């Protein structure tokens, strides 16, 4: 896996470079499409027998790297791939910050097969490893994390997403005195930030995308943090209506086919088995995790966070690309 670090990092760079010129174009699908085709052609150039296990959807929803798609040159190690070509297509389309091109590699069979639905996620760094339990109320988790970090609840910093489905959680945490950072979008970046040294957040609690959850878990695992997650159906995330029930039924069916359970708490080792994972995220628009792409005198500059679980490496790589 280690030898794939460089090829992987080049893939997220290529995707970010392909999408970036369209920042602010207003068209999410166009941006996704550009990143997807850049990723696919970069992937097919490297010596792996790769399979997309975490993608953005099923075969009929182009453009995307679909779940089950075989990629790579067809020789070399068997690799399972978790990908979000652009984590935050809306952010790129609207010219907002924090969008990333992300991909993770793991040995065959080591990632949870989660479909594209909502997931409840709780992430902490290594100092609070072992004290979280998503089956318990948020307030209990907040207390346990604060205790593990040796700080009062008033100094605990929780990242989350500013979405209607998270307003009760935000109110509950605020009530306890916890300082809440409700980000418009992007819980992959928030998960990674919660695990880094000198982190801006002590924990991350959200209900966001399941694919993003498994991708984040790769980084959390490699950084020695902790995470738990639970698949949530559409009604639970967005409210109980007739239309939402149809979506929820399809999601439950898909979960059964993929061998995963809705409303079951998955531990980090079940999300990602083993430490032999690689994670790469290149900034498209600038954020707290990495810089976005910047125009320089004779080209552009990219910044990528490359994390290796096997050798416990964490590199921030600046590249210059001429045009
Ligand atoms: C989630 C989250 C992502 O989009 O998928 C969210 O995991 C989608 O939320 O990080 P809505 O369905 O409420 O729009 C992100 O925030 C950005 O891709
Ligand atoms: Mg995306
Ligand atoms: Mg995403």
From TrEMBL:
**Gene3D superfamilies, per the entry:** 3.40.190.90, Fructose-1,6-Bisphosphatase, subunit A, domain 1
Gene Ontology CC: cytosol
UniProt keyword Manganese, yes or no: yes
Q: Which residues bind Mn(2+) 2?
A: 84, 87, 212
Provide a Gene Ontology MF annotation, just one: manganese ion binding
Under the heading InterPro entries, the entry gives: FBPase_class-2/SBPase (IPR004464)
| UniProt KW Iron keyword | no
Q: Could you identify this protein by its name? A: Fructose-1,6-bisphosphatase
The organism's lineage?
Bacteria, Pseudomonadati, Pseudomonadota, Gammaproteobacteria, Enterobacterales
